[in-house]
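stage 2 :: seqdesign
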């Protein structure tokens, strides 16, 4: 239904649907200008589609329903993709969670693996998160999107003074000057990787229609995109429930402690997760949601490096 420039869609699922948990991985920090959780329980996000930008507001209307309001030139295209975005293609057949995640599995019964289908939108923030503290990457993402993104169509969530933004297109990412990468706190290596990805964006976007292994192999052909980065993209853009973020600084220790009561390295983490393929990432998400099995900290936190001061 279209009224006053708003396309309204009521999506009903045959399964429980938790919009916040399903779409949550698409946000990058509490101040992400492309993603917002409102006080009324709705979730807002923006995206840049083939037909143009779109703003989406997801308002839960029951355990199986969500009302989605869409604004912008990309509204109809986004409406057609809603079932995939909301994880209707996510197949839990044969999935039995580990005992340590049973409670989280019950509490998060409405969590699905989202598939945004937007590769570059998932790839740029993943590159920014390489080898740095998460808070630093989130700050860089916000700075760059606020400076180079475009104002989002439609209204802004209540209380969001600066409004929402739509991510820059591929051409814009290639034109960010070196001094603005520096001002955002992004080192030259990551900046060059973003530019390389943007230059071949059409080829990378094709990966969303490929088999998981083939899709990740295409991403990893870009210099600077490794297995960790391709996994982060696969989880968000492809809805890959089996993509494990190998190479993560904290994840192996957390998974090892949760499943075996001791820290693990990447190889040990993969051994522990092997029985749960093709749902290894789903298990990781449930363990992180549970939060009861965190490895004890070894010493003080690392100081947050600020590349802008270097």
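stage 2 :: out
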């Amino acid at each position: 239904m279209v009224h006053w420039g708003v396309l309204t869609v009521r999506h009903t699922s045959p399964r429980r649907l938790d919009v916040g948990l399903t779409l949550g991985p698409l946000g990058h920090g509490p101040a992400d200008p492309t993603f917002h959780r409102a006080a009324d329980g709705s979730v807002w996000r923006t995206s840049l589609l083939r037909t143009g930008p779109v703003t989406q507001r997801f308002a839960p209307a029951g355990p199986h329903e969500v009302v989605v309001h869409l604004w912008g030139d990309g509204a109809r295209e986004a409406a057609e993709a809603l079932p995939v975005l909301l994880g209707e293609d996510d197949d839990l057949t044969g999935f039995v969670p580990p005992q340590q995640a049973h409670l989280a599995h019950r509490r998060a019964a409405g969590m699905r693996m989202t598939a945004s289908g937007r590769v570059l939108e998932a790839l740029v923030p993943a590159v920014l998160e390489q080898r740095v503290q998460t808070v630093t990457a989130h700050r860089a993402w916000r700075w760059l999107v606020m400076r180079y993104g475009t104002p989002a169509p439609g209204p802004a969530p209540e209380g969001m003074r600066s409004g929402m933004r739509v991510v820059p297109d591929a051409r814009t990412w290639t034109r960010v000057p070196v001094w603005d990468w520096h001002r955002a706190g992004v080192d030259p290596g990551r900046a060059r990787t973003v530019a390389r990805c943007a230059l071949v964006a059409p080829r990378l976007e094709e990966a969303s229609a490929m088999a998981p292994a083939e899709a990740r192999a295409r991403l990893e052909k870009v210099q600077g995109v490794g297995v960790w980065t391709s996994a982060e993209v696969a989880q968000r853009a492809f809805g890959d429930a089996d993509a494990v973020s190998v190479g993560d600084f904290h994840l192996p220790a957390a998974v090892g402690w949760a499943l075996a009561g001791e820290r693990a390295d990447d190889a040990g983490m993969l051994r522990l997760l092997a029985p749960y393929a093709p749902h290894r990432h789903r298990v990781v998400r449930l363990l992180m949601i549970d939060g009861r099995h965190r490895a004890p900290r070894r010493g003080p936190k690392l100081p947050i490096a600020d590349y802008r001061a270097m």
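stage 3 :: structure notes
- The domain at 119-238 is CATH 1.10.340.30 (Endonuclease III; domain 1).
- The chain has a mean pLDDT of 94.
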